[in-house]
Amino acid sequence: MADQSNSPLQELEKTYCPPLDPALLTAIALDFDLTDQAQVEQLRGTLDALRLSAWEQEDLPFDPSGTSGLSPDSNGFDMDGACERSPSHTDTMPSRETDLTSLTSGVSGFNLDDASATGRKNHVSYIVRSDGTLSLHGATDEDKIAYLSEMFRSTDRFTIKHTLQKAGGDVDRAMDELLNYVFFDEQIPDEDGITIAVPKGVDGFQGAEAVRKKGRRRKTKGKALARDQYARASNCGEPLSASSTSSNIWATAEKDVDFIYSLTSAVLPKERIRSAYHANGASLPTTIQALAKIHAPGGKNTVEKDELLAAQVSEITQQFPTITTEISAGLLIITRQIPSAAKELAEVMLTVPETSRAPLSELIKITSTLPPLDDEDEVAEPRNPGLRFAHNLENVKSAAHVHFSAGAEAFSKASTAYRRGKSDRLMGGAAAYYSSVGRDHLELAKRNAAAAADALVDQQSTSNRLDLHGVSVQDAVRISRERVSAWWESLGDTRLMGGSSYERTQGGFNIVTGKGRHSHDGTSRLGPAVGKMLVRDGWRVEVGEGSLTVVGVMRQR
């Protein structure tokens, strides 16, 4: 019992209740870790501000009209509408008390210009219902519409009248519905006059990119603005603002199609671009590459025959070395051989894929588990090491870093949302969303990290020598298994000649694992792991100083 009385929550209740309500204090405290002194101090700062506000409100009299105790008959307002406090205001406050069945408000906030305004406000008053809520009494429909019009100045009169009729003349219900209507219909204008819609639903969790709508006077878009929409560095923690709001996938898809069409309208119809976009998983870079391949010329000789096209292709390949001649020619053809437009498409095509959302094709996946194979039926699938030289080491390392960072941030947000879910059940959906985003980023990061390891090994290896310096143990085991199998398959019929002496004269396949001098305890990690894997897979291995040599097989593979 003594422990419970001395708990941090009990101490806070003794300090802040009253004036704060214990239920309110408990709800706020659930968002903080009371075992962490830093978070307790932060909680106390929040409660101090609430306690100060509560003390200020305790000294104010109850006034259902919201006019701060001033009525139109108490000379509190002059003819110009300026508020003037009477010196005897505090002395006359007790005389304002009435019983709970009729609280006359005098509703002076209408400010109607017609002559009937004076007649209306004399008979409009508040009454207290059986459930304790206030209701306008003696007000006509016009009075209620005027009252709501003063409160919602941005809403047209027809909407207010229709909402009041749907609510059966109940001002409180109509007010609740109008509040929701104003919030969801509100749009934020930026400096250029472009309106930005407030995100709704699940899309509101993902603050990635701005949703821009055409203004009535803006009939065209600048190409620079369209191109900037595809630099998709996502930051889920950004607040909603005029320069950074979230959009749904359908609006993004339409903008992607419009971007391609603005540069290729002379050659490609919009419907064809839209079909190609959805066929390529709603990915803008993939769609551009697919359209370029379709319209690319038959071969290199065809490009060389057209001197102008050949010169333009050479210019693009010099600026973008990773783009092939075929793709460069296709980009020029779909843009009607306009180099500037082709370069814009090439720049977007080489953009790192967005990390904020998954493609539409990945939203629904059907996976199945393969049946287990017997040990004697297992055959290592050969892979061509030459294909891996196409990897750009810096690009994949950068992509892996981006996905790891985004995944860590998403998991952090999921943890925060989960803690807040104890007091707000809606935060459970946010926690699930951010957790899913984090898992997607982690999977993509692992793929890019594996591709980076492949690219690094490709740079420092040859056809019969594999250098594993700089890669992890897991990647080293995977790469060794693939490369040894590929080397063995490349021998062809020569491996059937047999004889260990013949195999040794060929030199075998050398795997450099290092001596482990850079590890924390000076022992090798790669050598034992790779050696055990090769022996377990049935290879004949010779162990050297910091290296392994595969000279054949111990059994029929």
Topology, element by element:
Elements: H1 2-5, H2 8-16, H3 22-29, H4 37-58, H5 117-121, E1 125-128, E2 134-137, H6 141-151, H7 157-166, H8 171-185, E3 187-189, E4 195-197, H9 223-228, H10 249-264, H11 270-279, H12 284-294, H13 300-305, H14 307-319, H15 325-334, H16 339-349, H17 393-420, H18 427-459, E5 465-467, H19 473-490, H20 500-505, E6 509-512, H21 526-536, E7 539-543, E8 547-553
Biased composition (Basic and acidic residues): 82-99
Domain Smr: 466-554
GO molecular function: endonuclease activity; ubiquitin binding
Task: Enumerate the spans where pLDDT stays under 50 for 5 or more consecutive residues.
Answer: 1-5, 67-122, 207-226, 228-247, 354-369, 373-391, 501-505
Strand runs, count: 8
| Individual helix count | 21
Task: Write down the overall geometry.
Answer: flat
Helix content: 40-55%
Overall average pLDDT: 69
Report the major sheet. Answer: 4 strands, mixed
- Derived structural class: mainly alpha
Domains counted in the coordinates: how many?
A: 5
Rg over alpha carbons: 36 Å
Percent of residues in beta strands: 5-15%
Strand order of the largest sheet: 5-6-8-7
Order of helices and strands: HHHHHEEHHHEEHHHHHHHHHHEHHEHEE
Pfam family, one: DUF1771
Biased composition (Polar residues): 65-74
GO molecular function, one term: endonuclease activity
Domain Smr: 466-554
Structure keywords:
mainly alpha, 557 residues, two-stranded antiparallel ribbon, single chain, four-stranded mixed sheet, 5 domains, flat, disordered N terminus
